[in-house]
């Protein structure tokens, strides 16, 4: 199946099974805003819990906060967001569609990469075991030509972005003959800057009202609380502050479902370190964060690092962790070495001294910061994309199963009486009332057992138990495994110990140690 079709199926599966709904659905939705349904919210909460506990429980020197979304407007002046949180936008006059100029050019660069990979794949097939890929890449005339064009374009693009030369960005689009995917024409407007922050007003009277912003990242809530936390928590460097919360960006092009939203959620951790040690900590956090992703068991080939060549004005190193989505490798998390930029800026704009007194060196300095920043919704999407599976069964039927890591699954155990009579529902409720304190259980009595299994497969429930007439005599139930579909007879008294460990967030956290 084409990857585009797979993605469409995942989007409709999310709606059909109560994971993600368009916002204000009965009014036909609101662009790039989504609501999480009864199963989605559980999966999302489990992702957040996995992240939070990996930060705050596993690191003695990381604590959490929960800062407000509204902040003093000067915060965003100091952070550079008022002046520089812009995307270059361009419109196509024929289709009236709006694009990010940088994304159009990056897609063009990716096209050259694809051409090169196609040549390599063709040659690999032709030469078989004797294929020397390195030599082929260095000597094949077509590959060399594509590579030269790609590198030249990349250099030109990087220079234009670094200088934010809008005329040059437009010229690149024209020279590369990039067309609008909708109208197919090259009838482009000039490139303009567009600030991504949402504005609103606080204050009840028009005269007294002042403009404030919806935060475009959670990080600034951490920076402005650095002194509060460091002092009240008696924190010693190095230490971290973690936060999960909503962020808002007026994205120009909001496509690909929950990958790019206007209201989304971030999990960010700022790690404050002694200046000069930041590169070591940057490397450490790169590894630590990749291990967090890999512990989910999707396979290491699903991830790659993308080191940034163009750095934000505040950074001295940056990398993304990309995940293999059905639409290509895409950023899920950013790890940035932000220097002392943010704390210094806030010191300058607030007039407060924001430093750390180092008792070992008997001097004060501004700490440097390593940031790890991951989008909850992108993480959710990556988990969904990897877990969605269509399996051909021996009887010719297809089953759709969400192979979610058990610790993330919305429901851990479905409890099913074989029939709705003969005391079986009562027995099932008795089991439920015992186990519900330990993990999320769902009572299911409607439809045939087969249909109930399929419904549970579709939402990724790792275990189901069936209560039948024998249960009333032998106190055993049939335990069915989602992935193997194997059924085993087990005593009710063993259920908790058989299931709890496998479905707990702790099981994931232990892999990180
Ligand atoms: P992109 O280049 O895709 O716009 P970014 O580099 O601007 O992302 P950061 O500012 O580094 O993103 O934000 C950190 C994380 O927040 C990203 O890795 C992503 O997971 C998430 N994120 C950022 N913007 C959005 C959005 N519009 N919708 C959903 N998640 C987002």
Short synopsis of the structure:
The protein has 513 residues and is of the alpha+beta class. 40% of the residues lie in helices and 24% in strands. The mean pLDDT is 95.
Could you outline the blueprint of secondary structure elements for this entry?
Blueprint: H1 3-16, E1 20-22, E2 34-36, H2 38-57, E3 62-64, H3 73-78, H4 81-84, E4 86-91, E5 98-100, H5 101-127, H6 133-139, H7 141-163, H8 166-175, E6 192-195, E7 199-202, E8 210-213, H9 219-223, H10 226-232, E9 239-248, E10 263-273, H11 278-294, E11 303-307, E12 317-325, E13 328-339, H12 341-350, E14 356-358, E15 363-365, E16 368-375, H13 376-387, E17 388-392, E18 398-402, E19 413-417, H14 424-435, E20 441-443, H15 449-458, E21 463-467, H16 471-474, E22 476-481, E23 487-491, H17 495-503, H18 505-511
Parallel strand pairs: 3-9, 19-20, 19-21
Antiparallel strand pairs: 1-2, 4-5, 4-6, 7-8, 9-10, 10-16, 11-12, 12-13, 13-16, 14-15, 17-18, 21-22, 22-23
Supply database-style keywords.
binds adenosine-5'-triphosphate, alpha+beta, 18 helices, 513 residues
Bound molecules: adenosine-5'-triphosphate
* Mean pLDDT across every amino acid position: 95
Structural class by sheet pairing and helices = alpha+beta
Strand order of the largest sheet: 3-9-10-16-13-12-11
Tell me the β content: 15-25%
Number of helices: 18
DSSP strand count: 23
Q: What characteristic shape results from the CA principal axes?
A: globular
Question: What radius of gyration results from the CA coordinates?
Answer: 26 Å
Biggest beta sheet summary: 7 strands, mixed
Uncertain runs are: none
Question: N- to C-terminal separation?
Answer: 38 Å
Residue share in helices?
Answer: 25-40%
């Amino acid at each position: 199946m084409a990857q585009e079709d797979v993605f469409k199926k995942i989007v409709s599966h999310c709606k059909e099974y109560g994971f993600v709904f368009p916002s204000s659905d009965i009014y036909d939705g609101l662009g790039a805003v989504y609501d999480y349904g009864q199963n989605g919210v559980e999966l999302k909460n489990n992702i957040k819990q996995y992240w939070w506990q990996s930060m705050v429980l596993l690191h003695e020197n990381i604590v959490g906060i929960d800062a407000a979304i509204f902040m003093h407007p000067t915060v965003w002046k100091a952070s550079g967001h008022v002046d520089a949180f812009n995307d270059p936008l361009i419109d196509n006059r024929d289709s009236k569609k709006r694009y990010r100029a940088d994304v159009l050019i990056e897609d063009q660069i990716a096209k050259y990469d694809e051409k090169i990979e196609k040549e390599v794949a063709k040659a690999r097939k032709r030469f078989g075991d004797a294929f020397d890929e390195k030599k082929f890449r260095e000597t094949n005339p077509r590959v060399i030509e594509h590579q030269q064009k790609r590198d030249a374009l990349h250099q030109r693009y990087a220079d234009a972005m670094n200088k934010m030369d809008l005329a040059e960005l437009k010229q690149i689009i024209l020279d590369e003959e990039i067309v609008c995917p909708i109208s197919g024409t090259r009838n482009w407007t000039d490139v303009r800057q567009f600030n991504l922050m949402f504005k609103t007003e606080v204050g009840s009277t028009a005269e007294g009202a002042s403009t404030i912003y919806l935060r475009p990242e959670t990080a600034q809530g951490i920076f402005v609380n650095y002194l509060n936390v460091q002092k009240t928590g008696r924190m010693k460097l190095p230490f971290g502050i973690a936060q999960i919360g909503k962020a808002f960006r007026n994205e120009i092009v909001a496509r690909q479902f929950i990958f790019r939203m206007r209201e989304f959620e971030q999990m960010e951790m700022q790690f404050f370190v002694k200046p000069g040690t930041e590169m070591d900590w940057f490397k450490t956090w790169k590894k630590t964060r990749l291990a967090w992703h890999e512990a989910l068991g999707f396979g290491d080939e699903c991830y790659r690092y993308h080191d940034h060549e163009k750095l934000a004005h505040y950074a001295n190193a940056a990398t993304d962790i990309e995940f293999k989505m059905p639409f290509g490798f895409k950023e899920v998390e950013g790890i940035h070495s932000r220097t002392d930029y943010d704390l210094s800026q806030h010191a300058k704009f607030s007039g407060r001294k924001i430093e750390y007194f180092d008792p070992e060196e008997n001097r004060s300095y501004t700490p440097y910061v390593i940031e790890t920043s991951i989008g909850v919704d992108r993480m959710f999407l990556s988990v969904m994309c990897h877990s969605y599976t269509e399996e051909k069964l021996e009887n010719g039927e297809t089953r759709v199963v969400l192979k979610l890591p058990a610790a993330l699954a919305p429901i851990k155990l479905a409890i099913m009486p074989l029939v709705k009579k003969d005391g079986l529902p009562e027995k099932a409720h008795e089991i439920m009332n015992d186990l519900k304190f330990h993990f999320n259980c769902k009572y299911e009595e409607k439809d045939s057992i087969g249909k109930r299994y399929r419904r549970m497969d579709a939402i990724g429930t790792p275990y189901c138990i069936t209560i039948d007439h024998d249960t009333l005599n032998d106190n055993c139930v049939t335990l069915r495994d989602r992935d193997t579909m194997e059924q085993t007879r087990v005593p009710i008294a063993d259920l908790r110990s058989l299931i709890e460990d496998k479905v707990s967030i702790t099981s994931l956290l232990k892999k990180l140690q």
